[in-house]
Amino acid sequence: MSVSRDTPPAAPPISPTPLLVCRGAAVTLGGTPIVAGIDLTVSAGETVAIVGRSGCGKTTLLHLLAGLLAPSIGTVEAHPAALMPQRDGLMPWASARDNAALPLRLAGMPRREARALADGQLGALGLAGATHRRVALLSGGMRQRVALARTLLTGRRLLLLDEPLAAVDALTRSELHGLLLAHLARDGHGAVIVTHDLDEAALLADRILVMTRPEGGTDEGAEPATLSAGPALAGRPGERLDHRGGDALRERLLATLGANT
Amino acid sequence: MSRTHDGLDSPVSRRNTRADSRILRTIGPVLVLAILLGAWQALARLRHIDQIVLPAPTDVARSLWNDRSLLTEALGRTTEIVLLGVVIAAAVGLLVAVLLHWSPAARRALEPLLVGSQAIPIPVLAPLLVIWLGFGLAPQLVLVAIVAFFPVAVASRDALAGLSPETDLVLRNLGASRVQRLRLVELRGALPGILTGLRLAVVFAVIGAVFADSSGSTATTVADPTSSAGLGRVVQDAIPQLDTARAFAAIVLLAALALLLFWSLGALERRLAPAPSPSPPLRRTSR
């Protein structure tokens, strides 16, 4: 078993090597197998969506990919990844800009410079008027955008996003989809996005993977969840569901989720 | 208070309610104090209790005025000891908290010692400190700091450990070092807890200063090395002189000092770490 992670700063030159390779990885927490047999490769320029029922182990999988959990079996080799946790993990006492600027400050950037960059990123996410406001006073959707700004400002090429837009209203979500697509379309970037929203998965991803647990539920002693390829997507990310498989795709996805859980 | 037909407060009535509650908040404590003082005065005067046993509030007030020069000087000394002691306690308490936060081994090793240190009676400790450190400012400051650092250490340690699991995930993902975590995130997040510890510490410090004063150590201070008495000494000297009113006057000043410092830190806490929500809590509307 081995886990290797490159050290962050200077973005490595774009190479044909994948951003993430996970081979036969499994996670066991407190004696309970959570996920197993995970084989996943994410190449530069690729976005992978993972869909699955609540509690099936998607977040555990992201933590494994982020290097926050060690595999009990198998290997995970990855470029430094930026994780956006499901609950935003923001500092409620700090302003939106200081939250977004956290990765820059941790990288040693002076406060003034970091704040200026954070303001720019927050502005791009539609929060130009809220940069000075304390996060505790922001709505759920605004907080999620601050967390997204913080994630993007890490400058890391691999993004691991756990339900990134779940709390955002429909209109803002559609704007943010565009922004996320533009960010991911940049050379050498890639992402793994966990989502409950099948439309969102179809819109953003090159591939959809389905996470299922054979016996259902997360009860102790239950079988671990596994990852399998979902139905193939037509067209390119950014195109509407109609162009990517339409209702047939959705039905096949639901059938895969339903049939196995 | 008027209410609109749908049961919601109109803006005008809400403003009135806010003003009402502010007046109530001010009047409440004053009223309680007035009732207590009135009862005390009545008890002392109507039962003809000797002033030596229980001076009436008017006797205490008279002493506050008549002995104002002595009391003011003593208050100055005590305030100095308390403030210096609290500064030392805050620094030591915070350092201990960080050590306990960083090292589970240190926590296991030091915690019984810290708790045990608080069980040592101050009247026992005070003369010992004089024997070890001599007369002067040092034993007094050490005593006040020993008494006051514990709440700072405990409250700060708990507050430092109070980071949300998600923020912890983010910091681990970003590869933050211990020092970075402390400097950029944890200390600021722990500020309300640290200030709560400090508020308790100032009250403990006032008690510590009284014992330090009455322990036989002469209260030599930085400002005036030849001076020798804080409020604790005033109390101690007044009792054998049968001047109970003066002892009470000194106690009133001690309470006022503790309250003032406690409130000041509360105001600082509200300024530095305001409550998360700006909106007042929802109230049940009744018809």
Largest interface, with counts of residues having CB < 8 Å to the other chain, equals:
A-B, 26 and 22 residues
Calculate the mean pLDDT score of chain B and round it: 83
Specify the structural class of chain A: alpha/beta
Helicity level of chain B: over 70%
CATH-defined topology of the largest domain in chain B: MetI-like fold
Can you walk me through this structure?
The complex is a heterodimer of chains A (261) and B (287). Chain A is 33% helix and 23% strand. Chain A is an alpha/beta fold and 261 residues long. Chain A folds into 2 domains: 17-80 and 157-261, Rossmann fold, CATH 3.40.50; 92-155. In chain A, strands 6-7-8-4-9-10 form a 6-stranded mixed beta sheet, sandwiched between helices. Chain A has a 4-stranded mixed beta sheet with strand order 1-5-2-3, with helices on one face. The model of chain A is unreliable at 1-8 (pLDDT under 50). Chain B has 287 residues and is mainly α. Helix content of chain B is 75%, strand content 0%. Chain B has helices at residues 11-46, 57-66, 68-102, 104-118, 122-133, 137-160, 165-173, 178-214, 231-238, 244-272. Chain B is flat, with a radius of gyration of 24 Å. The termini of chain B are close together. In chain B, 33% of the residues are buried. The chains are: A alpha/beta (261), B mainly alpha (287). The interface between A and B is medium-sized, with 26 and 22 residues.
In short:
The complex is a heterodimer of chains A (261) and B (287). Chain A has helices at residues 58-65, 96-100, 102-106, 111-124, 140-152, 170-184, 198-204, 241-244, 246-260, and strands at residues 2-5, 20-29, 32-42, 47-52, 73-78, 81-84, 158-162, 190-194, 207-212, 226-229.
List keywords for this structure.
A: 261 residues, Rossmann fold, six-stranded mixed β-sheet, four-stranded mixed β-sheet, 10 strands, 23% strand, disordered N terminus, B: mainly alpha, MetI-like fold, 2 domains
